[in-house]
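Human
Can I borrow your eye for a moment on a structure tokenisation matter? Give me a protein, with the fold worked out from its sequence. Write it directly below this note and I will take it from there.

Assistant
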Amino acid sequence: MVTYETIKNDAQARAYIEAGNDTLKVLGYTEHSFTHVCLTAETAGMILEKLGYTEREVELAKITGFLHDIGNMMNRKYHAAAGAEMTRTILERLGMEWGDIGTVCSAVGNHDEGSGGKPVSAVAAALNIADKVDVRRSRVQETCMDNILSDIHDRVNYAVTRAELEVLRGERDIIRLCLDIDAGFTPVMDYFEIFLKRMLMCRRAAAFLNADFGLMINNAKII
């Protein structure tokens, strides 16, 4: 059976992820390499595990999280669709069952807000949340502070000093992102300028999982 560990150690997948991040770095994007994909994978798996999904669904969420940005090697604008096709060829080579391939590829193909971003399964919903909540200082690939200050994506990521995702079980489950943002470095409103659409995606994904999405910034409830 193809597992998360199988995918993490696959030389082709790793080479394509690294190539994609190299391309995005030249284009001025934040980090999309192994730190991002592993965090996304483990967060997606954690969401489904805490919500009581099956071990295989948790494993597929991790696999999907690791592979979701592989299409950046081909093109940023269409990286979700390109990544779904690249993922299919890798998983077929590894002998994954066709039904599982369908689950993973449909999640990869629908994870980007620019090309839909609608949850089409529990695995896709977990991926959408895990991907969109990865905001942190270490995602900034720029080294010049003047350049960081001039780019709102770099500035916002650099200003985040803590990011933690919680899954709270109850009468109505809550998936909550808790952020600490250095407001002296950039206004909190800058976060919403670039991430509002992503937070709405997280709300839709949480709803698909029969949960509410919450957002705390500097200990204040925003959503």
Q: What stands out?
A: The longest strand covers residues 160-168. The mean pLDDT is 95. Residues 152 and 190 are 7 Å apart (CA to CA).
